[in-house]
Amino acid sequence: MPLKGNGGWVRSPPDSPVGEWNFEIETKSKVDRRSPASLYKFPSKFYLLFNPWAKGNLTLSLTASRDALFNPWDKDDHVYMEDKHLLDEYVVNDVGKIWVGPYGTSRGREWVFGQFDDCVLPACMVMLDRAAGAGTLKRGDPIAVTRAISRITHTHARGLDLAPAGRSHRAPEPHPDEAGLRPWPGALAPNRHRLPPRSSVSSGGAHHTVSDASVDKCWGVVIADAPYDRVNSNDEDVSVAGVIHGRWDGDYKDGTAPAAWTGSVAILEEYLTTGKEVKYGQCWVFAGVVTTVCRALGIPSRVVSNLVSAHDANSSLTVDRYYDLNNEELDYDPTNWEGEDSIWNYHVWNDVWMARPDLPLGYGGWQAIDATPQETSLGFFQCGPASLEAIKCGAVGFSYDVPFLLASVNADLFRWKEDPESDRGYTKISSNKYHIGRVIFTKAPWLFDPNGDKDREDITNQYKAEEGSATERLALMNAVRGVERAKRFYELPSISREELEFELVDLDKVNIGESFNVVVNINNKSNSVKTVKAILSAASVYYTGIKAHLIKKASGDFQVQPKSKELLKLTVKPEDYLDKLVEYCNMKIYALATVTDTNETWGEEDDFQIIKPKLDIKVSESLPVNQPTVVKFSFTNPLKITLTKCQFKYEGPGVTRNKTIPYRDIRAGELVVLEHRFTPMRAGAQKLVATFSSTELLDITGAASIDVYDDTEE
Known about the structure:
By secondary structure, the protein is an alpha+beta fold. Helix 2 (120-132) packs across helix 3 (142-152) and helix 2 (120-132) crosses helix 4 (265-274). Belongs to the transglutaminase superfamily. Transglutaminase family.
């Protein structure tokens, strides 16, 4: 702060690159102009960061151990957010929630972002260095920076065939910073490529844009002496060493299971100290780390969960299911050799707040970025930033990756049946306009509910108009007109259904060890007998929608009398499914029926999750700072088998850094109680997040709110 009448502000240009800076002051006497200049070198480096509070070009210097971002000055910043109260959530809040699980049984999973931990900013600098690779990265441009974050958060596995041959997809112009970057060998730069969801994956690369009607602005934070050495950006394979290695096949023995993480700090610390990818992560882990990095850099960010999320593998803005003449679903797309579409139970990405001067007025604000390596964009596994307004109105020509994200939340689900008389070989038998993007959640500002969903916010209307409304349909058709392949898919009619109505009954909550039923209601509205061929089945699935094990299946022909109703039911017992469950206990039920005399065909599916117990946390709600205390964790093993290689993890900013506690084998049905001692480090309203994991049982989580007080204050 300048002294009154002596000194002044040091202003950085609004597009100053984010990163580490040295600070020197040269002074010269006005009286004795021949005397030599005096040079003062500031002893520490400092960070320049984005400043969402500010509207000028002010650079602030504070020690990194203090709340260095909390200083509202400048306004000429691409990431400026006018509502300062929202910044308390989207930049300052260091603990949040990520909604995971299928529609109907989703739950908020607590996550420690920990963006003010000593290791985070150094890790961010390593990430940005590596994201640039052999090219350059305009670090004062939040569009460039967030697009880089979307590709460097994960790692690209060289030698794996992750990029099958290309498809026709009009790519956006590359951001100027991407001109010097080379795609991975074998990747086709203008196209997206399908990533096999069950493989062990990774990525790297680059691409991005610019912002709305502001100027890039940064501000400074002094780098305190940190206990971390910077990883050399010229290390071997530095251009591909992303932060997290993604894996979806359940084999995590050489790393940490994604469900075992409690937050981002342990991940970033391992990345910073080893310089290597951290094993393992999945979509919500990527999104949690992205939130940490963005908030640390001063970019407002939130985690977004899309329940029933489409993966459009061929840029048709549809999800396509194919069936043979016997009504058996094919596990591949016979019309697309690049890979089949899929429907994830849920998918998690991020929104970041910024202006978009590269787009027409009105497309700034929240922008979607996705760090999960699903498809390539301009040769790299990266996605966004895509304006939510562009997604909502179907403006697929705007950068970046709007068609892919639009399909994720609003594609139609088409079912096709083999038809020898069709030129395409398949006839569209049904279309579902409501299945994809059932609801989109984020954490509500300023709230935290460790025991429920009072802190959940529905932001579906920010991504699309009300499902089925004229506005929503017009927006989708606007997008379809801009994608040639989509036009061909949507212009084909479906077989009309008029005489029979079918309904697959959604399942209510099913606790692990309980039976459940697959039920289909049929209503014959006609005056004639109808013969129906039906198939009902249940399968365990990975949350990416990939089928793991068929659990039970029944099929048969039967007649439905005129003006009457029938009920089909398939009962699934615990002994049918318990040994076939995969991680997260996700299940899918399927139903397909054909009216034999009219060839009218109907199909439907529903995802649900077998419910596991929560991890109960007992700790005093009010604790003195710097005084040892005890926390108690407990849950009951719901399985009829012994749990092995057990461990608890817990952490909380201001409470304790990440702790890992190995635990003995747990017997079938045993009530487990673990007590552990910790010492709260900082006064204030704090949160504790914990997980339990074992070889046989994952994803047991819990959280608690704690008030830590300083009893030395009067």
